[in-house]
Every structure is written in structure tokens, then in C-alpha cells.
Design goal:
The chain is α+β, with helices and mostly antiparallel strands. It has two domains: 73 residues, Glutaredoxin (3-Layer(aba) Sandwich); 144 residues, Glutathione S-transferase Yfyf (Class Pi), Chain A, domain 2. The protein has twelve helices and four strands. It has a four-stranded mixed beta sheet, covered by helices on one side. Strand 1, helix 1 and strand 2 form a beta-alpha-beta unit. Bound molecules: glutathione. The site of glutathione has 11 residues, from helix 4.
Amino acid sequence: MADICLYQYPISPFCDKVRRVLNAKQLDYRCENISLLATLLGRVKRLSPVGKLPVLGIDGRSIPDSTTIIEELEQLYPRINVMPDDPADQALVHFFEDWADESLYFFEVHLRFGLRSNASYWAEQATADDHPKLAPLLRLIVPGVIAKTAQVQGTGRKSWPMIEQDLRRHCQALAAWLSGKRWLVAYQLTLADIAVASQISAIAHTPEGQAIVGQFPEILAWLARVDEVTLIPISK
Ligand SMILES: N[C@@H](CCC(=O)N[C@@H](CS)C(=O)NCC(=O)O)C(=O)O
């Protein structure tokens, strides 16, 4: 069995996505949480050329980016697969994953760090691995750093009512797609379920996100199904 180490920010939905795949595949792994101070001192840049987490260390190699990591895990450990066999289903998984990573992600960013009522709690979570004496200082820079990313992407320039309307539309579409289905693609749990669930779950961990997601029983029932097979590590 390979030595697998997930370098992560525990609250990152992309790190959650990789953990869920490792759990679904019943692989033994360990996690190394990277503190904000370590990131500022260049630790993530040394692990990944793009300076983002997750990075997966596997037998001495470092693989950055959740999509690439999961592709590699699928090749190395195909016994429990998260990609369907049919090429058209694979294409659908790709579309769902990209929607989750490139669109839904920015809703959770806005809900956690863009809304003043939630920002200090989540800044605290983002510095949970920092020294308790330094964390209160580091916390101060978190909302600013994240706001810059959201500004560039575009959600940071929208008002809360606009974002709320966009998110409701996404949830309506997801609920309509899920109607009468157990899984998003084909008849099995796939990376589509895992990628979307990681983002929806982060969204629903804020009061405002929960108020929207909670209006869609199809989404709640599906999320519970995905959680059941992806949240329990075999190693702990
Ligand atoms: N496409 C990347 C996105 C990863 C990502 O955006 N990670 C965030 C944490 S949630 C990060 O490390 N951000 C640091 C930065 O943008 O400098 C993936 O799928 O792994």
C-alpha cells in the first residue's frame, strides 16, 4: 500500500472533495494541515507551482489540483471507481465537476467570507492550525485576501440579493435534475456527486446557505446519500 498524504486546508471544499474520494475508495491516508503562517512562508508554493491546496503526496510524488489528484487515484485504485465506464457519462461527470469547482465554489466563498455576519467565524476556522498567539493577527488578513479573489472572479462585485437569486437558480436546477434519481450521473456514486456535494455542503454550513438549500428536499436526501458513503475514513 502506497504512503498517501493529503496536504490540506481542512475547511477547503476542494480538500473535502479529495478526502471524500479517498474515503469512497476505502484508501488509507493521512492528512497534514497547512497553517496560514506556513502558507505565507512559502510552504504551499514549494508543494505546488500554483500555490493552491489540495496537494497529494503519494510515494514521494506531489500531485497538485483536486481534478488531477482524483484522475491519478482512479488510475491507481480502480477497484472502487468514481468515474463511470460510458464516455457520455464521463463527459457529464466532467461538466458537473467543472460547474462545482468553477461556479458553486464562489458561492460558498461569498457566504463564508463575503458576508460580514459569517466572516469572523470562518476566518477563525481558517487559522485554526496557527499558533494561538499569532492566529488573531493572521485572522485579520483572511477576509481581504479572499475578497480580492472574489472581486476578480466576479461574485465579489454582486450584492447579496443578486447572489441569493443566482444560488437559488442553481439549487432549483440541481433539484430538478435529481428528481427521481439516486445519483447525478448513471446508477452509481461518481465524482459528479462528490464534487457537487463538497461545494453544496460548504454552502449549507452557513445559515444563509442552509436557508436556501434546505428548501429543496431532493438535494437534502441526495446529500445524505453521498455523505453516507464518502464521509467515513477507513483509516481512523
Ligand atoms: N482547481 C483547484 C482549486 C484549489 C483552490 O482554489 N484551493 C484554494 C483553497 S479552497 C487555495 O488553495 N487558494 C489559495 C490561493 O488561491 O492562493 C483544485 O481543484 O484543487
